[in-house]
Amino acid sequence: MHLPWTPPEETKRAAEEFRKAGLTITGAGVIGFDKDDDEDMRKKFEYVKTAGIPLIIGMPSAAVLRAVVVDRDFDVVLLDELLEAREDKNFPSPFDVLKAIKNLDPRIGLCVDAGHAVRAGADVQAAIRAAGPRALDMHIKDLTDFGSDNSGCPVGDGKMPIRAIFKALMDIKFKGQVMLEYEMDENNPLPGMVKSFAYMRGVLAGMGYKA
User: Fold this and answer.
1) What is the residue range of 155's domain?
2) Least buried of 3, 77, 117, 131, by fewest C-beta within 10 Å?
């Protein structure tokens, strides 16, 4: 929890500390919406709005999903509420998310999480293309074994089809962020992160991509 649930004035102050340090806050999450309770939902939306964050990476339960995204008493017109695919009973794969949100407000989109997707047996690039404009965020990592979340490695050292994923994002004219998830070497993660970014930037340069 980088920005704890605090009184509004403290939330604003803490968020500004991130920005003064040169960091851009692009999203907040994963935020759970597991109770069909107006006050619980309102508190979470207000927290994100107060911090000036444009995107919620949300994790509603299937039973609460429609209440979260349809009730406009929350005045969240500036937010994109986001549903992240996880291997759980609600939305095991990105395709389960897309099925659940297909008739909902177009601001309700998908966070394509490469690690969760492959462990759920889903084709990441197919999920990106199926999502199209509903693909609002992307979490990227590499794994040496798609069956294990404990097989993480620097991007480029594993089996993740990085080039194909980037090609799919380009094909749908993806406008969101690609977030590196690097969970190894917790006491010294920087070398692996630098290697991961260097590899991904090299792939993009080889594809003729210019930022």
Assistant:
1) 99-211
2) 77
Give residue-wise pLDDT tens across range 104-156: 877 788 899 999 899 889 999 999 999 999 999 999 999 999 988 789 999 99
Asked if residue 22 belongs to a domain, the reply is yes
* pLDDT beyond 70 at 80: no
| 91: in domain | no
Per residue in 48-78, pLDDT tens?
Answer: 889 998 888 888 877 777 666 544 444 443 3
> What totals of helices (H) and strands (E) does the chain contain, helices first?
8, 8
Whether 121 and 39 map to the same domain: the answer is no
The beta-strand segments (E) located in 79-211 are 80-84, 109-113, 135-140, 142-143, 152-153, 178-180
Determine the Cα–Cα distance for residues 48 and 55; give it in Å rounded to an integer: 8
Asked if 122 and 206 sit in the same domain, the reply is: yes
- Residue 50 is given by DSSP the state H
Decide if 17 contacts 45 (C-beta within 8 A): no
DSSP state of 91: -
Q: Which two tokens stand for residue 87?
A: 């291997």
Query: In the chain, how many domains are there?
Result: 2
Task: Return the SS3 of 70.
Answer: helix
Instruction: Give domain status of residue 90, yes or no.
Output: no
- How far apart, in whole angstroms, are the C-alpha atoms of residue 135 and residue 57? 12
